[in-house]
Amino acid sequence: MLQDDKQLQAGNMAARRRLKRVASSQPGFLTLKSSLHPTDLAGNRRKRVNKNKKKNWNKYSDINDVEEFLEDVRHQERTTGGLLSEKTDDNLFYVDLGQPEKPEQKAEDAQPDDGKKRKGKSSRPLRIDLILQRDSLVPPPKDILAYQQPNAKKLRRIAQKAEQLAAKGVVPRRQKRLLNRRPVDRTAKKAEANNNPDREYYDIWEQQPKVTADPWYLQQTGKKLVKRPEKLNEKPSVLPAVEVIAPGGSYNPDFFSHQALLQEAHEVEVQKKKQEDKLERQLAVNREDKATEETNLREQVEGLVEEEENNEEAAPSMEDDEAALAAIAVTQKKTERQIKKERAEKIKEQQRLANRRQTEQQQQLFQLRSIKASIKKQDQKTKDKQMQRRAKQEAQKAQPRRLGKLKFQAPDLDVQLSDELAGSLRQLKPEGSILKDRFKSLQKRNLIEPRERAKFKRRLKVKYVEKRAFKEIT
Prior knowledge:
Mean pLDDT: 80
Structural class: mainly alpha
Distance between the termini: 78 Å
Shape: elongated
Strand content: under 5%
Radius of gyration: 54 Å
Largest sheet: none
Order of helices and strands: HHHHHHHHHHHHHHHHH
């Protein structure tokens, strides 16, 4: 089908060229180029050469007159939309009747408002639009591929066959099966597949009706929806997605704003320097702690003297224990009188403590004012601690949490020194990277954990082999 269309288009183009040549050979054909002369089209006397050979075709074939003619025809088509010989007199000429008279303006329209623009200026197109307009009157070629369809001939044949069968009154088997299908009962609601085209319309934004069935039945049948936890509705961080930089970070900032930003960056660098110095002090080695010959000898002899002293002290301690055990064995049992006396003293001590406790409680009645003041002070202290704890929790919401084994490292401030400031956007030097800024923002808002670039780890060992040339030299 595509080959037939191409042949048809080629035939139309050949017929069109033939028609143009015939029209140009007529005595009424007009040319737009002054270089062409009617006598030039007749041609001069040509040299007689053998054109059976291919090498003489371009060498002795003079086609300048044909090219000039075709170029003139194309020029007429671009400028006038066709050949001048085929145009009518009304299209080529017009009668000049002079400047047309303008109708008299009404009294109301004679004095237009100063704030309104004239209609002529508003309706006039812009110069850039006139430049971009199409200046050729030749219509664009018809795109044949836009009208083609895959398997068009097959589909046309199937449609013709279906029309013939319909004219005879024959029903195809496929249509019979569709007509004989059992009608669907749309009133009965049942579970349907998601890919069923005949299912009822379901609005996902519709308000769900209240279910009045038994909760146990709904839970066992799986019809009860799972309650969404309230924590899932909370954002992991209260920070905005895009943080606006301070006014001092502008390309042409105010002096005081820029100095404030420089002071903030300076404080950050000072804190880093303090941390580095602290780490160096902790890891520094004290000269006094270095081992010498005297300290080594003292460590070697340290355990020998203590063992001898311990052995000397151990002997008398064993004798004292034996004497204490003998004294306990010799002591006699307490008598009944002693037991009663100890019991009476114990009861008397308990009574004394109870009386003292009761006296203290009675004395507290006169201290109610001071007790109330102490309770009030304690309650105020508890409230202050609760407020501090709540403020700390609110502040922690804006801080990055520990999501992995690495801690969040805040990026450096994008700031330029005073001598690096540019007065315009054209001279501005970019600072930082947009990709790194977005990556750090995701980490700061607790959306992803802080991570570092994976390090390359060689699995196989490197094997060194000496070449023969190296062995021969050595």
